[in-house]
Amino acid sequence: MSSTENLKLVESLTVEVRRFIAGALLFNLKVAGEVGLNGTDMQCLNLLQLQGSATPGEFARWAFLTTGGVTVVLDRLEKAGYIRREPNPRDRRSTIIRPVPSKFRKFQKYYQSKGQALALALSAYTDDELNLILDFFHRVNDPGAAAE
Question: What is the pTM for the complete model shown?
Fold first, then answer.
């Protein structure tokens, strides 16, 4: 493949990734509004659900928020019942943030069809192609990669 063809493919893929991200963010903002959350809180819940638990400092790094900003988000999410803070067994000055699984059931009606559509699209690929796609996402989601 020529470098010109490669450049065109990279540009096309970049456009499609941006389109996917924009669509996902706008859909998540719509869902957030319908369940009474703001967009930041919704995305923070998503991150926490994916990670399972975190200290506030870890969570701040994942969410690209200051520790003060994370405290405000976590206070709102705790008050709404989406998370709970537990003592950190490794550091008595810290807490562990955990999602409350039962609170996430309300999101299922919004995301179930999206998940099915994604599974259907991915099922069209071979195992080797799926491994390639997975490798791509591992690379772009790597916290050590340039994110800004």
Answer: 0.80
Question: Is 148 a domain residue?
Answer: no
Per-residue pLDDT of the chain (148 residues; tens, 9 = 90+): 789 999 999 999 999 999 999 999 999 999 999 999 999 999 999 999 988 899 999 999 888 899 899 999 999 999 999 999 999 998 888 899 999 999 988 898 999 999 999 999 999 999 999 999 999 999 988 766 554 4
Containing structural domain, residue 117: 104-142
* Same-domain pairing of 95 and 42: yes
Domain count, the chain: 3
Residue 147 domain flag: no
Nearest to 65 by CA among 74, 52, 76, 78: 74
